[in-house]
Each structure stands twice: as structure tokens, then as C-alpha cells.
What we know:
Strand content: 15-25%
Helix content: 40-55%
Radius of gyration: 14 Å
Strand order of the largest sheet: 2-1-3-5-4
Distance between the termini: 32 Å
Number of helices: 6
Structural class: alpha/beta
CATH class: Alpha Beta
Number of domains: 1
Largest sheet: 5 strands, parallel
CATH architecture: 3-Layer(aba) Sandwich
Amino acid sequence: xxxxxxxxxxxxxxxxxxxxxxxxxxxxxxxxxxxxxxxxxxxxxxxxxxxxxxxxxxxxxxxxxxxxxxxxxxxxxxxxxxxxxxxxxxxxxxxxxxxxxxxxxxxxxxxxxxxxxxxxxxxxxxxxxxxxxxxxxxxxxxxx
Length: 144
């Protein structure tokens, strides 16, 4: 699977670990930045990854910032993105099963690497359940 990965400065170190984990599990990753811990604005990277996923260039995305909140809010501004903030591995499972999330977000300052790895495993192992969940997902985009 082709996966776009991005962060802000708070997530750079975890991002490197995530890319290694993903590639070790057979995925092709594009690190969309940043590449240093110099301060950057998280919306820039959320939008970059979001546009890549929404356009189909990448099938899924992973984003990190300090809390995961700002980057998930920003990613969800891109039409076609369903970014889910993941605090526990169970959230990742449900993000896929119930919300068909195409971007998973983490808080680098509040999540440990073991939790991220388990969450990624759960997310990639789960399938969207459709049915009543599809009806709800269909209502997300055209809310205006």
C-alpha cells in the first residue's frame, strides 16, 4: 500500500520510526516532511498529506503533531479526507471499521511508540464494515 506520512516538528522522530515500521511491513511510504525539528506549521503538512490521499496519489496517510488534534482538524478540511485521532489501538480499529478513515493521526507528545505500532497494526488489519456505517460516512462530506 502507498502511504503518505507527515508531521510537524514535534512528530519528526516518531515519523522516522513509523516509516521504518510501515516499510518493514511491506508498505511504500513517502515522507512528506518536515525533516528537521525546526518549528513548522502543522496545517501545511496536514494539507499536503490530505491532498495526496484525497487525490488517490497515496492510499492512506499518517500524521503526527504534538497532540494530534491540530493536524487531524487541519487534515479534515481537505475534501475526501477522513482523518481520525488515535489515542489507543482500539480507536484505530474502529476508525477503519466504522469511519473508513483514510488518515490516522497521533499525538507525538502523548502517545508512545508501542501504542503507535499496535494502532497501525490494528488499522491495517481491520476492514470497513459498510452497512449503517456507510450511510453515516456518506453524510460527512456534504454537511453544508
